[in-house]
Amino acid sequence: MKGHRRTLSVDLGERTYPIYIGPGLIDEPDLYRAHIASPGVMIVSNDRVAPLYLARVRAALSDYRVGEVILPDGETYKNLTTWNLIFDALLQQRYGRDCTLVALGGGVIGDMAGFAAACYQRGVALLQVPTTLLAQVDSSVGGKTGVNHAAGKNMIGAFYQPRAVLADIDTLNTLPRRELAAGLAEVVKYGLIRDPDFFIWLEEHAGALLARDDVALSEAIERSCRNKAQVVAADERESGQRALLNLGHSFGHAIEAAVGYGNWLHGEAVSAGMVMAADLSRRLGWIDQTTVLRIRRLLHNLELPVDPPASIAIERWLELMAVDKKVLDGSLRLVLLRAIGDALVSDAFSTEQLTATIEGAC
Amino acid sequence: MKGHRRTLSVDLGERTYPIYIGPGLIDEPDLYRAHIASPGVMIVSNDRVAPLYLARVRAALSDYRVGEVILPDGETYKNLTTWNLIFDALLQQRYGRDCTLVALGGGVIGDMAGFAAACYQRGVALLQVPTTLLAQVDSSVGGKTGVNHAAGKNMIGAFYQPRAVLADIDTLNTLPRRELAAGLAEVVKYGLIRDPDFFIWLEEHAGALLARDDVALSEAIERSCRNKAQVVAADERESGQRALLNLGHSFGHAIEAAVGYGNWLHGEAVSAGMVMAADLSRRLGWIDQTTVLRIRRLLHNLELPVDPPASIAIERWLELMAVDKKVLDGSLRLVLLRAIGDALVSDAFSTEQLTATIEGAC
User: Fold this and answer.
1) Is B43 helix (H, G, I), strand (E, B) or coil?
2) A101, A186, B16, B162: least buried by Cβ within 10 Å?
3) Strand, coil or helix: what is B154?
4) Which CATH number does B177-361 carry?
C-alpha cells in the first residue's frame, strides 16, 4: 500500500459507507474485496476513461466475473437512451440481482451507473470509482443519481448510496486542466456555504491545486468530502440543509441549458452561478462588495469563469430558472450568502433584484 | 359516504400507508384530501380507463391544480419509452418536486406511474387508484414499481410506497370477465402461500366472485391485501418471505415472454404457473396428487388456464427461466409448496424434475 491514504465515513445508519482518498487506490484488490460481496461485477465506464484505467481495474478485480459496458463520453449522453445500454449489457451478460456495478469515470458515469444500480431489478450494489475532481468531491458522495431530460437537467433519478467510494488522486493526472478547474468550483462551494477556514485555505493554495500538488489535492478532496458527508448525513433526502449544496446551481443550470449541455462544463457554470448568487446577496444587503470581489478573485485565480455568457436574453434566464427543481410550485428559492461560510435558502428577493443581478452580470 | 368500507394499514414505519376498499371511493374528495399535501396533482391513466373514470376523479380533485397524461393501454407499452411520456407531461406542465402523481388504472399504470413518482426529481408523492382486481389485490400494495426491458419483465424499477391506495370495487363492474378471472389468480395465490382458510373460503365463493358479488369481492380484496401487507411489512425489499409472493411467477413470466407480453394476461400466466409449481412440488414428494388436482380445480372453476401454451419448446422454457430475477448467479430458485397455505423458496429440484414438470404440462 502506498502512503497518504485518507479515509472518511459517510454516516447514514445502515447505509453508512467509506470514502477512500489517495494515490494508487484503483490497483488494490483488497479495497474492492472489502466492498464487493457478489461474484459478478459490471464495470460501467466511458470511451475516454476506459482506455486509461479499465485494464487496471479489471486486473484488480481478477477474483470476480467481470463484464463491462462502455458508454459514449459526455453530458449530452446522460439520458434515458444511453442509460438503457447498461441494462442491455446486464441482461445480455445475464447478471442477476446480486451483482455489483462499478462506476469508473466522472460525474456523468457516476450518475448514470448509480441510477442504473438503483433501478436494475429494483436495486443492486454499487461502487463508485470517480476519476475526475468534480466526481471525487461532489457527485460520488451523497447518493444523488440520475439522467437529464430534454426539458431539464437531472429531472429523472434516485437517491442511492454506494457501498464505497475509491477516489484515486493519481487519476487526476490525466484530467485536462479545464476539468481540474471545473472540479475546484465545487471545492470552493464548500468553503462558501459552511467552512470559512477552508475558503481561506483555498485562497492560499490555489496555485498548488492547479499544479496538481498531491498533498494539496488530497487535502482539498478530503475537506470537501467531509463537508459534503456531514451535510448528507444530516439530510439525506434534501429536505433541509442539503439544499445549500446547490449554491450557484440554479444560475448554473440555466447557463448549461441555454448554451447546450456540455459546452460549458458543469463546474464552470457553477462558478459563474456562485458569483451571481453572491451578487444577489449583496443586493439584499447581506454581504458587501468586498466579499463579492474576494469570491470572484479566488474563482478567477482557479481559472474559472466568473461571468455568465452574454448571449442569454433576460427572458430566457427567467424561463430556464422557472423549471429548476428548486422552484416549489411557483416561488423561486435560491441559495444565497450571509457571509463566506454561511449560506441559506431564500426567496426574499424581488424579481427586480434577480433581474438586476442577471443584467449586471451580462 | 356509502357503506361497506374497509380500511387496512400497510405497516412500514414512517412509510406506513392505508388501503381503502369499498364502493364509490373515487368520488370522495375527503379521501384524496387526507393524502395529498401538494397543490399540484398529475393523473396518470390509460386510454381505456380514462374515458370511464378520469372525469370523476378530476371532479373529486377540484381543490387542486390537476393535469393528466393518458398512456396507451397494455403491457406492451410498459417500457422506458412510454414511461418517459410521464416526464414529458410533468415538465411541460411545470410540475415541481412537491407534486403528487395519481395512478388511475390497472397494474401497468400503477407500475409505470409508481416508478415515475419514484424517479421524478428523485421522488414525488404517489396515490394509487387501482381499477382492476389484479391491481387492487396485488400491484398497488407493496411498493414494487417498474417497467419491462426487451430482455425481461420488470427488470428496471424501484421499491416505492404510495401515500394511500383507493381500491374502489365499483370500478370492477367495467372489467372484462377475463380480467376479473386473471385478478382472482393472484387472490388464490395468497391462499396457497400462507392462508389455507382463505383457500377454502375461495373454493366456497368462486361463483359469487365471478358474479361480482359486492360482499364477496370486498372480502376477497381485503383478505388478499391483508396477506400481502403482512408479507411486505415483514420484508419490504424482498430479502426473505416476500419472495413467496412470486409463486407461479417464474413459470408465468416465461409464458408471458414466450407468447409475447399481453397475449396472455399476467394472472392467466400465473395461474398456469402455480399449477406447474404445484406439480414440481409433487415430484419432490412435498404434496400429493390430490392437492395438485384441488388447486387445478379451483383455478379452473375461476375460468383460469391451468396448463401453459403447448407451443413453447423445452429449450425456450429453460432459457426464459434462466434470465428470471429469481436466478441468483446461476442457481434457479422457485417458490414451491409443502401444503396448501405453506410455501418456500427452494432450489432442491433437479433439472430433470423441472423438465418433467414442463413437459408434463405441455
Assistant:
1) strand
2) B16
3) strand
4) 1.20.1090.10
